[in-house]
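Curious: explain these C-alpha cells?
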Amino acid sequence: MKMWSGRFRQPLDPDFERWQRSFSFDRRLLKCELLASNAHARALKAAGILSSDELISILRGLRQIGEKAAESPAFLDDDEAEDVHHFVEKQLVTLIGETGYKLHSGRSRNEQIATDLRLYVRATIDQLRQELAELCSVLADRAEQAADAAMPAYTHLQRAEPVLLGHWLLAYVEMFLRDAERLADCRKRLNVCPLGSGAVAGATLPLDRGLMADTLGFDGATANSIDATSDRDFVIEFVNALSLLALHLSRWAEEMILFSSQEYSFVILPEAYSTGSSAMPQKKNPDLLELVRGKSGRILGNATALMVAVKGLPLAYNKDLQETQEPLFDSSDTLLQMLPLVAGWMKAVDFNRERMLQAAQTGFMNAWAGATYLVKRGVPSRLAHERIGKAVQMCVERNCELQDLPLDELRSLSPAFDQDFYESLNLASVLAVHDVPGGTAPSRVRNAISITRKKIESLREEAHAHA
C-alpha cells in the first residue's frame, strides 16, 4: 500500500511508477532512517501517542530491520518500495503488524528525508575528515623522510627557486587541512534537526523537538518548518566543499603526472598504482593520477547540478529535491574511495632526489639570493635586481651559471660584489636565506613539520570523537 494512496482511485502508470521511485539510491539512507524513526517513536511515546508496549514493539521492529539489512543485502531488493521511508514502514508492519503504521503519526516524508540527509552528510564528513587526517599524516611522514633533499619550485611553470622537497609536500598538507576545516564548518551549520517540522507547517502533535534533536546528536531543532523541509543548503555547501577538495587532489595529480614524465624525472611512479600500454611495452602510465584528475570533474559537475536543481524552486518541498540525492551520493562515494588510494600512492612513490638536486642547482634559481646579497650590502632592492639581471644575461650569452662569472666582471656591474658572493649562491645558502615562518629554510621546514603533526593529531581526535 502506498503511503499516500487514499485520495486516488486509479493506479499510477506502471512506467511512471517505476521511474519516480528513489529507493534504488536512497536505500543507502536506511541506517539514518532507522535512527530518525527511533527518535520519532520516543517522542510519540512522550506525547502520549504510543503506549510503552507499542514503543517497545516499534523499536524492536526497527532494530530487526537494521539487522536483516546488515545480514543480507538481498533484503533491500524491493520492487514495490517507493523510497526508503516506504520500505521501512512496509517492513515494520510485516514484523509487528498494524502498530507499525502508528510510527508515521505527526510526521511527513518531507521532514524525514531532510533529517536523513543531514545525518548522512554529518557521518560522511566525519569519515572524510578521518581520511584527510591519514593523507596529511602520510604527506608529513614523506616530508620528514625527505630531510634536506632539495628540488626546484616553479612559478609560471618556469624554474623559480630551490626549495626543500618536504616544503613542497607540506604545501599540499595545507590545502587538505583547509578542506578538513571547511568540512567541519559545514558540519556545524547542518547539525540541526528537522524532525517535528511536518510537511511544511510543523507537526500536528505536541512532539518534543528538543528530545528528538538530543537523541540524534543534533545541537538543536531547526527554527522554521518551511525552511527545514525545503533546505538543501547543507548538501550544496557540502558538495562545494568536496569540489574544492577534488580540485586540490586534481592539482596534486597533475603535478605528479608532470614530474613523473621523462622530461622532469622527479617522480618514480609506483607500479602498484600504474598500468602499462597494450601496444608499447616500455610504458608505465600514471593511471591513478589520471583518474583522480578525471573524477574531480564529476564532483565539480555535481556541485553545479545541485545549484541548478534548487535555484528555481518555490518553497517548500518539491519533488525536484529528489534529484539532489544522487549528486550528493556520487560525490561522497568518489572521494571516500579516492582518498585512501591517494594516501597509498603517496606511501609507495619514490622521488629521484639526484635528479631533483641537479635541477635545483641550475637555471639561475639562486638569482634572488644573489640580489639579496647586494641588498644586505646597501644596494637598493630595485638596483640590486637590475644588477643581477644583467649578470644573468651575461651568463646566458656565455652558457654558464652566476657562480661561474669572475669577480672582476661582477664588480663592473656593482662595486658591492665581493668574494663571499659565491658562497651566497650555493644551494645551502640559498635555502637558508628563506629563514622566515613559512619559508623553505631547513630549520623552518623542520618546525613546520612539527606544527603540522599537531594539527593532524587534533584533526584525527576531532574526527574520532564524532565517529
Summary: Strands lie at 150-155, 158-164, 267-268, 350-351. The chain has a mean pLDDT of 95. Residues 43 and 207 are 6 Å apart (CA to CA). The chain has 19 helices and four strands.
